[in-house]
Amino acid sequence: MRFGHFDDERREYVIDRPDTPLPWINYLGTEAYFGIISNTAGGYSFYRDARLRRLTRYRYNNAPFDLGGRYIYLRTGDGEFWSPTWQPTQRELTDYECRHGLSYTRISSRYHGIKAETLYFVPLEETLEVWRLTVTNERDEAVELSAFSSVEFCLWDAQDDATNFQRNFSTGQVEVEDGVIYHKTEYRERRDHFAYFACSEPLAGFDTAREAFLGPYRSWDRPAVVERGASTDSVAHGWQPHGSHHVKLTLAPGETREIGFVLGYWENPRDAKFDPAGSQTINKRLVKPVIERWLRQSAVDEGLAALRARWDELLGSLQVSTPDGDTDRMVNIWNAYQNMVTFNMSRSTSLYESGIGRGMGFRDSNQDLLGFVHMIPERARERILDIAATQLPTGGAYHQYQPLTKRGNNDIGSGFNDDPLWLILGVSAYVKETGDLSILDAAVPFDNAPDSEQPLYEHLLRSLRYTLDRLGPHGLPLIGRADWNDCLNLNCFSDTPGEAFQTTENQSGGVAESVFIAGQFVLAARELGDLAACYGRPDQEFRDAADKMAGTIAEHGWDGAWFRRAYDFYGNVIGSASNDEGQIFIEPQGMCIMGGVGVEDGTAVTALASVRERLATPHGIVLQQPAYSSYRLELGEISSYPPGYKENGGIFCHTNPWLMIAEAMVGNGDGAFDYYKRINPSAREEISEQHRCEPYVYAQMIAGRDAPTHGEAKNSWLTGTAAWNYAAVTQWILGIRPELTGLRVDPVVPASWPGFTAVRRFRGATYRISVTRGSSRSLVVDGAAVEGPVLPLAAPGAEVDVVLTL
Ligand code: BGC
Ligand code: IFM
């Protein structure tokens, strides 16, 4: 069953009923001001950092799930009122439709002959969002209409806002001037910053105190002000600052009117002169022209067109046409879009991530890079330098950093020993895409400490060294607190049965080893070897280190039919046929093969057969089998999940593309594509009632075969699944893969495909690629035959015709 459909022409997903199985969201903003918005206008906004500069309040994990948003209430003269986005009044609407597009959302409906459509987006280069309400009177008589806007302001630090009421109930400050509501609560510092909420029409009234708007003991479904049809002109002093405008309109039959709203963030430059006539803390002089501009409908039209043009440009870096519609739709539109969202949000802000607990992940951001580097290489460069600047002098890493301060923090622990190696893989992906070796010379500090700057290349050397300095009893890398699998905490041990030492020191100080990190090391060392050779530095030691680690994997990491997962604190093997549960894990199969381990000697093919036999389900490949049926202290959090969920045997989608890549590496195009289709969200649209999450983006997890809800997705949007699936399908299945020497075209597609075409921008040139089948393999570039699969580098600006015959 579906809850909408794809409109590929307009690059929109069209939801045709408001009661989707879960709120289906979209993201507003592309640069500094962001928001999430659900299909019923729920969500919140922030400037740069969802924790530290939160503009509007949101209630997590609520019932209904999604409460707090960008709400508009309409009321006719006879006292009827409703929300044209369905929430929060939930009146029965006709012709409800939500169109989630690329960085904008449009929600429309009819209620008793009044049509209303609201468009929400953030104009490029602005720190504000525009709401445009268009109302049409389709009745055959004139109608008196009131429109009330509503946002609830958050007192900036969302963590503090949710926990420190005793203080915050006394700090709220607002100001209303010329119909603009300014939310100017200070946050422990006087920054001369504020939020504002403005309306294009003359106001019949306003409210800035939540209690005055809602009325005591009422909720958002029947605010007293809306019910009564009159605002109270309240000015909040402490408690909960709120923003509501009241606009009255008389609409003749057939008449349409537009009302613009602008919600924004403003921070005056430090040296801005205060307007002597203004308040002490707000200098409105600079923001007023901005507000006036975005309240003009012509600006809104231009802003939306500019946003569209930006997306044309971004998505234009790769467009494909294949025999499979789900592939085209995901590659050309939604997967690329999701990659950009993960670039901006990392794992911080979604319906499943509060924006408070997680900042930018070290490993996450490096992997996300794989999905966006071709669209925004300059910003990828900047991102890499930001990440590297948080690296510790030991080569180790904070697990995450706060986007606003760009400082690392250990809020969710440290000592994840895979972290440093991802930096090598991220940088390598960047250089392959851009050819920009100069990034390796960039001076980057360690832990952001002044005077600690070293070339980025030195950071990569320390990343590799970090692993080599931490080898365990079998010569495999120590896992530390965990590797990619956050929940595989193998240094939890106890002297007292039933009690674990959960301190970071103990978790990362143990001797447990990871075969996954070993595979990742082989991959990273080989990539670093290639980079070094290109950069004119000695490379042999990296190749030797990779070969040596591959040998150690063969000796201690191979179980006979698949790669083992780890050794725990006590030296017991994990992920082996000798275990009673957790016999085979997906991660080392993917990572070791991606590192090239077993590809030559055929063990990779054996491991892949084991995956297909033991881990593959119709909904994707589960993380391990058998799932752990009870909690095991020596394995940590992984065994705390019920079987089939999350890291305990869930289909952790992030790992599935590793197997697609591995299948492609051994030449199995049918196998790779089969795995791709199992988790492709567009291909799962038909089972939306079972899948439940948005059919246009990947979710972190689909419940595994041991779960009672097998096939149900969870935690959509912010997941490394996006970048990795994009890499798997575009670079390995379609085979259009950036390498240090140029663009490789080396598809491993299903046997039934007659071919496909693609347009790829690469280092300034545009390659028009056509792949067909024939009697023998040949590659012809601009009419001339080329040896091997790598295209000769074309000059920037060139248009190149590429014909590959398989
Ligand atoms: C997992 C969570 C887990 C957390 C622990 C996450 O990546 O998906 O389920 O609780 O890591 O740090
Ligand atoms: O690898 C992690 C990732 O960093 C955050 N989400 C879960 C993954 C697996 O534990």
Automatic annotation (TrEMBL):
Keywords: Glycosyltransferase, Transferase. The keyword Transmembrane does not apply. GO terms for biological process: carbohydrate metabolic process. InterPro entries: 6-hairpin_glycosidase_sf (IPR008928), 6hp_glycosidase-like_sf (IPR012341), Gal_mutarotase_sf_dom (IPR011013), GH65_N (IPR037018), GH94_catalytic (IPR033432), GH94_Enzymes (IPR052047), Glyco_hydrolase_94_b-supersand (IPR010383). Residues 11-272 form the Glycosyl hydrolase 94 supersandwich domain. GO terms for molecular function: carbohydrate binding; glycosyltransferase activity. The keyword Glycosyltransferase applies. Transmembrane segments: none annotated. Pfam families: GH94_b-supersand, Glyco_hydro_94. Residues 311-735 form the Glycosyl hydrolase 94 catalytic domain. PANTHER family: CELLOBIONIC ACID PHOSPHORYLASE, CELLOBIONIC ACID PHOSPHORYLASE-RELATED. This is Glycosyl transferase. It comes from Dactylosporangium sucinum.
